[in-house]
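Entry for the shared binder. Reason: the reviewer on the internal report wants the predicted structure included alongside the sequence.
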Amino acid sequence: MVDMLRSLRYGGDDLTAQQLLALLFLSSRGSQSIDSLAESLRLNESTITGLCPRLVARGLVIGIPSPSNRGEVAIMLSSAGQRFVDNLIYRQGRSSGAFPRVPVTDSDLHRRNDEALRLT
């Protein structure tokens, strides 16, 4: 995770460790309530409540009001947020040598993501 943060900062992105952790968790687990996200990440609910508007403003997550409880909001990655996480993981894998032969074009990356989604 430290390498990912360094990579982000080198690229001019200023995500905090908590924001990155939230994005990675949402990518792997899907939408979460603020309570469950805070509990899963072992962060204070106020920390999650504070970082969500910043991620929404950047277009990386969206908040979906609960139909059964007006005060509850589910947080999920936007399509831009999922692309951000996918690209981050891809770049990290390329720099570590884990993906030495993976094509580097955006269209190849999106095609591979689509293929992976069809397999799940």
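Summary line for the report: The mean pLDDT is 77.
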